[in-house]
Write a structure and sequence with these properties.
Elements (H helix, E strand, L loop, with lengths): L14 H12 L6 H13 L9 H6 L2 H9 L7 H20 L3 H7 L4 H9 L11 H14 L17 H9 L14
Helix pairs in contact: 1-8, 4-5
């Protein structure tokens, strides 16, 4: 899977690995995962743009430079949305509430998957797009599948992220049936 391939400069289970996962997944919409993760790895491997995965350095960087560096390898396809409305708000939240470390977020949630989802969805924290039903669940499950430093408990209580195309194909092929919620009036 593309999320299992890491740049040579990122060690599996490291803080860099956690930041690569959380920040890249946050901008995972209307893009193929293979392409997104490839440009994420390329951005992270480039010594001039790697800092975009360090929340403390992102907070210290001006918007113009951050935008330039996030578009250099194609990480930010829509700079206003990807940089200003997603990436830039997430990094100060990580710095202010979790000392700039995703591992502190995980510890606060006691490595409990449903509590982790509840934590990132708490309005106290500004973690745009990670709060969405699909993206939040995707991040938690990807974290469990790839990070491998610490297992999350109660993962079975986290919904499986399914996009509309997979849901439709599943129903159309008969793998799953849909029960109508509407009742006929008699």
């Amino acid at each position: 899977m593309p999320e299992h391939i890491l740049p040579a400069v990122v060690g599996r289970g490291s803080q860099d690995h956690l930041h690569l996962i959380i920040l890249t997944v946050a901008i995972d919409f209307i893009r193929g995962a293979d392409d997104l993760l490839a440009v994420g790895r390329e951005t992270c491997a480039d010594h001039e743009t790697r800092y975009v995965y360090d929340s403390v350095r992102v907070v210290e960087t001006g918007i113009a430079k951050l935008t330039t560096d996030m578009t250099r390898h194609g990480l930010a396809k829509r700079p206003e949305k990807d940089v200003q409305r997603i990436w830039q708000p997430i990094c100060p939240t990580l710095v202010q509430h979790f000392d700039g470390r995703v591992s502190n977020l995980l510890r606060r949630a006691r490595f409990n998957a449903p509590l982790l989802l509840a934590t990132i969805r708490n309005p106290r924290y500004r973690l745009p797009y990670l709060t969405a039903p699909k993206i939040g669940s995707l991040w938690v499950r990807m974290l469990e599948d790839t990070w491998q430093e610490h297992n999350l408990c109660s993962l079975e209580d986290v919904p499986i992220p399914v996009d509309v195309h997979i849901a439709r194909a599943t129903v159309r092929t008969g793998v799953c049936a849909v029960r109508s919620q509407a009742r006929s009036r008699s």
